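User: I'm writing a tutorial on reading structure tokens. Could you give me a worked example: one chain, its sequence, then its tokens, then a sentence or two explaining what the tokens reveal?
Assistant: Sure. Here is the example chain.
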Amino acid sequence: MLTANTDSFWLRIIYIVSVIISGAIAFLILGPRPVRIEGSLDVSFLPILNASLNGVTTVLLIVGYSLIRQKKRQQHKNVMLSAFGTSTAFLISYVIYHWFKSGPKLYTGDWTTLYYFILISHILLAAIIVPLALITLYRGWNNHIGKHRRIARITLPLWLYVSVTGVIIYFMLY
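And here are its predicted structure tokens:
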């Protein structure tokens, strides 16, 4: 059984890691790059990979939710760990793409207001989902079922929103 001090320690680690991840992503997208880094690696295939990873994450989250409703706890854990894995793969691919491509792609469609609403809400919730997903994973991993269930009720809809809107943003841009 984990003590309150151990729990507090890991929650602080999760918050620190979350801030570092969000800060690193913001810097990699908006910050300066070394000379001649842009275009030095062909990353043109990564947007479709990223959208695919978001789509797979969406399906895994829905399946994981369905499994826990059926009280299939071990299968739920496996599927949710897979969803966390596809989200992590997305994050790595996203960072690589934006490091080797200068800045975000500009939207040129007819639905500008809708696009920016989706994009801004997606970005804000993506930053929030990092610590939420890590805390939810941590509590589930350590069998803090009551605490896991309480935070999962918040994490799941937000994570679904982020993964679905990631796919929508791809289709609006490409």
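What the tokens reveal: Residues 112-141 form the longest helix (30 residues). The chain has a mean pLDDT of 93.
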